[in-house]
Amino acid sequence: MDSGAVNTVDANARRARRKPESLSKIKGAARKLFVERGYDATRPQDIAREAGLGHGTFYLHYPDKRACFLAFVEEARQELDIYLRQARQPGQDLEQAITATLNAIYDYCDAHPGVLRTAMTDASVIDAGGHAGVPLMARWGEEWGEIIRDAVASGVVCDSYNVAIIGQAIAGALHQAALECARSQQCRKALADNITRFLVRALRPD
Amino acid sequence: MDSGAVNTVDANARRARRKPESLSKIKGAARKLFVERGYDATRPQDIAREAGLGHGTFYLHYPDKRACFLAFVEEARQELDIYLRQARQPGQDLEQAITATLNAIYDYCDAHPGVLRTAMTDASVIDAGGHAGVPLMARWGEEWGEIIRDAVASGVVCDSYNVAIIGQAIAGALHQAALECARSQQCRKALADNITRFLVRALRPD
Amino acid sequence: MDSGAVNTVDANARRARRKPESLSKIKGAARKLFVERGYDATRPQDIAREAGLGHGTFYLHYPDKRACFLAFVEEARQELDIYLRQARQPGQDLEQAITATLNAIYDYCDAHPGVLRTAMTDASVIDAGGHAGVPLMARWGEEWGEIIRDAVASGVVCDSYNVAIIGQAIAGALHQAALECARSQQCRKALADNITRFLVRALRPD
Amino acid sequence: MDSGAVNTVDANARRARRKPESLSKIKGAARKLFVERGYDATRPQDIAREAGLGHGTFYLHYPDKRACFLAFVEEARQELDIYLRQARQPGQDLEQAITATLNAIYDYCDAHPGVLRTAMTDASVIDAGGHAGVPLMARWGEEWGEIIRDAVASGVVCDSYNVAIIGQAIAGALHQAALECARSQQCRKALADNITRFLVRALRPD
DNA sequence: TATGAATGAGCATTCATTCAT
DNA sequence: CATGAATGAATGCTCATTCAT
After folding, report:
1. For residue A181, what are the contacts with CB-CB under 8 A and spacing of at least 6?
2. Which residues of B touch A179 (CB under 8 A)?
3. Closest Cα to residue B171, out of B148, B189, B151, B204?
4. Using H for helix, E for strand and C for coil, what is the string for A167-205?
5. What secondary structure letter does DSSP report for A16?
6. Which of A191, B60, D176, D204 shows its CA 20 to 30 Å from the CA of D63?
7. Residue D192 predicted with pLDDT over 60
8. What own/partner pairs with CB < 8 Å and gap ≥ 24 does C123-131 have?
9. Is the Cβ of C122 closer than 8 Å to some Cβ of chain D?
């Protein structure tokens, strides 16, 4: 009787776990290959094989390749969000906030090399084909817009900007500068210093 | 006999002219289709047909599709360069220089809708697959870096920046802000005003 | 202990009953889906799900999809047989027999819309691929052959026919005329009248 | 000069011939395989290989497999039409007309074994998936309807039938009887005799 | 120089079936 | 007896590129 109950529990637990198990294998394999090879050069078949599973299993979890990639992008966005939220503390002045944000992004990039670049480079192309809503960069631009709006309300940022535009500009500046730093192997400290100073000067009141 | 000679002369003349002729037809068709449909959705066959030529003719002028696209990107870059060079006059102060540059870009975009976006969006993907040298954005970043370097030398820009980094940041800011303005149908004047003020404040000495 | 015994009895009873239970669920679901979607567009998985059972259960009752479809066809044939047997009474003259038979078929089609068409259309394809014995139409042709043979023996049908051939011809005439009536929404009475007259004239002695 | 003209003519002729050449190879191969294996078991790849051509060539001539099959069916219909038109001569009485028609069909079947069966069996399934208009059998039913209508007008067929219904019935009777004859290797003469007598009795006036 | 018929590697996706639980 | 996650062979189709003319 007891063993029966245990078996049942086990069975249920295993049953409940098995699907997520293969899902997470697929997820991990997809992430690895998308980052290594890019969207186009990664076939669903490769992902499944990398995960040690049959081709068909891929389609148990995603309706198509696109959906899998979009899920990968969304996951990356959420992971970065955690880094960002941890970095931004109440009471930071503008410079501190910018520095903390930059460091959060660079920490994430160190921890997950290539993920952000892949998510952003290919996502724009994927989205273009469809109608998938706001691209990743634009969303980050919007978030920066909100940060600036709050900072304006607190009086720590000059109030003469259209925050929507400036939010996008900041996101673009960060992105492109970071890309180039990666390309040219520049040190991250110089990057953070320069960008911080740049933004602080541009934004400070008066 | 005479008519034969004339025909031969004609034929030679035409032959000499024809290659450039068919090349420019191909170029124009490629540009049109790349902008309308994007890189992936445009087949060499489509380009040749749009140009009113046989499929094989495409490969008389370009070794492959990639090369054709890269040539399109390069052409766009050079066209924009002309606009930019005309805008930047000696004796401009920093604000004037920035405003003039922005206006040159927007003028180009008005004159050649979609070209810049296509050149930049798809180029990144094409490059990613290969190793095609410096992406378009990075090159613009470098050019901005040089502009800033000169401005620093003239004393109109504060000298505490790493110009390579800041050049990239400026290019990124411009790009992303412009993209978003296009997406949200914002007016170009607000965009130019905001970005100009932003950059002037960030860059002015002291 | 008692309750255990009772449970065991219950369980056995249920076990004995359950197989037929789940079989009839599968049968019903298969019939519904084959009629609605056709053979090719119906997956064993769909059938099991429609039956409220797991995918694997399907294969507890049928070795494969084909066998399931063939069972559906056979069931339809037997159901129609009941209608036909009830319609044919001893002492009918030829005209009465034909009319009664036609009405039985049309009653069956009204009671089970689509079943006959599905059974016959797809069965031919299934059979074609394999060697599954006599197709449905041919069996009906044989039955008509026997009816005619009996009628010849009774002297109500002219004896100069090869009954095997004429049986098939009758079955084909009925089938095709009925199909077209369904397609063109013709009334069933006109159909029955015309076919009956046609057959009676063709078959009557002298 | 002359030789030049000849060359041009040759070149044009060859150019004009080349496409049809591969098309007719594909057509022939498709016909062979559809008849031998049926629609489902025949892949475009098999057709191209059977024709001694690459896979892609198939899609130069047909947008998809379905279209190829439908073209095969249409071709068969037209071929049979020629046989039928040759068989039906003005001045035939009803019995002659029916016999001639039957013989035309059987001649066609002898000359092109399996073609009609394949065209009709699989066409119904293909059409079912789409909306491809009137199935082959129904069209023949209509044609028989017209033959009967004319015969009624000439007074050689009794005028109490709905010719649309009877036309379909005749087509069905012919088809099914012929199918069964093929299955049971019955001789064609018995078939023609029986069906002719059957139809003549059913249709003759009074 | 120009052509366009021919090519075939390559891809995303489906689905009947199995088997460990 | 029941389950449903896993499988992978198989399919229809595309498209960049070649080459005989």
Report:
1. A187, A188, A191, B165, B168
2. 137-138, 168, 172
3. B148
4. HHHHHHHHHHHHHHHHHHCCCHHHHHHHHHHHHHHHHCC
5. H
6. B60
7. yes
8. C123/C69, C123/C70, C123/C73, C124/D121, C124/D124, C125/C39, C125/D38, C125/D40, C125/D121, C125/D122, C125/D125, C126/C39, C126/C66, C126/C69, C126/C70, C128/D38, C128/D121, C128/D122, C129/D38, C129/D40, C129/D41, C130/C66
9. yes
Residues D176, C169: C-beta atoms closer than 8 Å: yes
Q: pLDDT at residue C14 above 80?
A: no
CA angle D65, D70, D73 (to 5 degrees): 130
Contacts of B186 in chain A (CB under 8 A): 164-165
Residues near C199 by beta carbon (within 8 Å), at least 6 away in sequence:
C94, C98, C170, C173, D202
In this structure, the number of other CB atoms found within 10 A of the CB of residue C163 comes to 21
- Measuring CA to CA, which residue among C126, C106, C114, C120 is closest to residue C32? C114
Report whether pLDDT(A48) > 70: yes
- Residue with CA nearest to E15's C1' atom: C43
Domain residue ranges of chain B, discontinuous segments joined by +: 1-62, 72-206
CA A129 / C1′ F19 distance in Å: 34
Specify the nucleotide whose C1' lies closest to residue D49 (CA): E8
Which three-class secondary structure state does DSSP give residue C154? coil
Taking C1' of F15 and every protein CA, the nearest residue is B43
- Beta-carbon separation of B160 and A38 below 8 A: no
The DSSP annotation for D180-198 comes to: HHHHHT--HHHHHHHHHHH
pLDDT tens readout for residues D40-51: 999 999 999 999
Q: How big is chain A by its Cα radius of gyration, in Å?
A: 21
Q: Which CATH class is domain A1-62?
A: mainly alpha
Phi, psi of D159 (to 5 degrees): -95, 20
Q: Which residues of chain B have pLDDT under 50?
A: 1-6, 13-18, 129-131
Assess contact for C124 and C116: CB atoms under 8 A.
no
Question: Which residues, in sequence order, are CB contacts of D34 under 8 Å at separation 6+?
Answer: D42, D69, D72, D118, D122
| Cα-to-chain-centroid distance, residue B193 | 23
b (16+ CB within 10 A) / e for A52-65: ebeeebbeebbeeb
Residues of D in contact with C197 (CB under 8 A): 160-161
In chain D, what is the straight-line distance between the N-terminal and C-terminal CA atoms, in Å? 78
- Does the CB of A186 have a partner CB in chain B at under 8 Å? yes
Model pLDDT, residue A3: 46
Structure-token pair, residue A194: 């320069």
Distance C194 CA to F2 C1' (A): 53
Which residue, counting CA atoms, is nearest to the C1' of nucleotide F18?
B56
Q: Do D198 and C166 touch (CB under 8 A)?
A: yes
Task: Name the band, by pLDDT with cuts 50, 70 and 90, for residue C120.
Answer: confident
Judged by a CB distance cut-off of 8 A, whether residue A32 touches chain B is: no
DSSP per position, D13-36: HHHHHHHHHHHHHHHHHHHHHHHH
Structure tokens at B174: 């411009």
Q: Which two tokens stand for residue C62?
A: 């049928």
Q: Which 3 state secondary structure label does DSSP give A46?
A: helix
Q: Could you tell me the distance in Å between the CA of residue A55 and the C1' of nucleotide F5?
A: 13
Sole residue written with tokens 């005309």: B86
Average pLDDT over residues D128-155: 81
Name the protein residue, with chain letter, whose CA is nearest the C1' of F14.
D56
pLDDT at D2: 45
D-contacting chains (≥3 CB pairs under 8 Å) = C
* Domain over B72-206 is classified CATH 1.10.357.10: yes
Selected residues 69-88 of chain D with any CB under 8 Å from a CB in chain C? none
Q: How far is CA C59 from the centre of its chain?
A: 23
Q: Do chains A and D touch (3 or more CB pairs under 8 A)?
A: no
